[in-house]
Amino acid sequence: MQRSPLIARTVPALRRAVDNLRKRKATIALVPTMGALHDGHVSLVRLARRRASRVVVSIFVNPTQFAPTEDFGAYPRTWKADIAKLAAEDVDIVWHPGVEAMYPQGFATRIVPEGPALAGLEDRFRPHFFGGVATVVGKLFTQCGPDLAIFGEKDFQQLRVVTQMARDLDLGVKVIGSRTVRERDGLAMSSRNVYLSPQERQTATTLYRAMKDSAGRIRAGEAIAPAMARGAATIEAAGFVLDYFEARHAETLAQITSRKDGPLRILVAAKLGTTRLIDNIAV
Ligand SMILES: Nc1ncnc2c1ncn2[C@@H]1O[C@H](COP(=O)(O)OP(=O)(O)OP(=O)(O)O)[C@@H](O)[C@H]1O
Ligand SMILES: CC(C)(CO)[C@@H](O)C(=O)[O-]
Ligand code: BAL
C-alpha cells in the first residue's frame, strides 16, 4: 500500500523523525533536490532505496546558490506532483524547510570550497554557486545525519565539490554519484528544461550529440584540441551561446592536454535563449 512520506518543515521535526528511524536500526540515505522532480530525481531515489533501508529527500530551492540575476524566483515549484512521485517511491521523509528555517535571522556562516575541483567550469560562470551549494549541503548533512547521500552525475562538478567537502569536514556521509538520465533524444533531464520553447527543445539535443561526436573522435585517436573545437563550433552553430565545452580529467577535473593524462570527461554549459543548460559525458 502506498504511504505518504512524513513531511518535516523544521529542524527539530526532522531530527525527531530521523531519530525514530534510527531507533529501528535504519540506515539512511539522503537525496538533496530543489524539487520540480523528474525521472532523473526518481533514479536517485531508487538508488538510495537500494543502498539504504530508509530514504530522506530534501526539497529546498536554495537562494544562496543563485546570483541576483539568475532564476531563483522563476525556478519551477511543483510541490503536489513532487509529493505524489515521492509517495510512489515509498520515500520515508521529505525535508522541506522554509528559507527562515534554513537561514534564520542573523545567519552568518558559509562553507567556501576551494581546490582543483573549482578550477573554472561552473565556478567561472557562477562564482557564487559552489559556496551556496556547499553551505546548504553541509547544513543538509548535519541536519539529517544520513549514512550516505546521492547526487546526480549531471551536475558533475557539484558531485566532485560535495564529495571533497564531506571528506574534508569529516561529515561522516558517503557521497554516491548516480548516472545521468536522458530523454529519448539524449537531452539530459533537468528541471530547467521546462523553460525551453518547442523549437529550443529540438535544438537542445545538440549538446549531447556534440559531446558524443567529440568523445568519439578523441577515442578514435584525434587530438583533443581539434576534436573539442569541432564540438564547440557545432553547439554555437545551433544557436547556443557557449560558456564552456571542455575535456577534463574525469576524477580530478584538472585540465588535460593529452589522452595519456588519464580518464577524460567532456563537460559543457551553454545558453539557449535565456535557458542555461549543463551536461557531461565520459570519453
Ligand atoms: N537527468 C538527471 N539524471 C540524474 N540525476 C539528475 C538529473 N538531473 C538532476 N539530477 C540530480 O538531481 C539532484 C537535484 O538536482 P536539481 O533539483 O537541481 O535538478 P536539476 O534537474 O538538476 O535542476 P536544474 O535544472 O536546476 O539543474 C542533483 O544531484 C542533480 O545532479
Ligand atoms: C545539491 C542541491 C540540492 C543544493 O541546493 C542543488 O544544487 C541541486 O539540486 O543540485
Ligand atoms: N542542478 C544544480 C542546481 C543549480 O543549477 O542551481
Automatic annotation (TrEMBL):
Under catalytic activity, the entry for this protein gives:
(R)-pantoate + beta-alanine + ATP = (R)-pantothenate + AMP + diphosphate + H(+)
Pathway of action: Cofactor biosynthesis; (R)-pantothenate biosynthesis; (R)-pantothenate from (R)-pantoate and beta-alanine: step 1/1
Residues that coordinate or bind beta-alanine: 65
GO-annotated molecular function: ATP binding; pantoate-beta-alanine ligase activity
One GO term describing the cellular component: cytosol
Give its E.C. classification number.
6.3.2.1
Pfam families given in the database record: Pantoate_ligase (PF02569)
Task: Give its localization.
Answer: Cytoplasm
Q: Where does the record place the catalytic residues? A: 41 (proton donor)
- Biological role stated in the UniProt entry: Catalyzes the condensation of pantoate with beta-alanine in an ATP-dependent reaction via a pantoyl-adenylate intermediate.
Describe, as the record does, how this protein assembles with itself and its partners.
Homodimer.
Q: What else is known?
A: The reaction proceeds by a bi uni uni bi ping pong mechanism.
Please name the HAMAP family in this protein's record: PanC
Please report the name of this protein according to its UniProt entry: Pantothenate synthetase
Organism from which the protein derives? Bradyrhizobium niftali
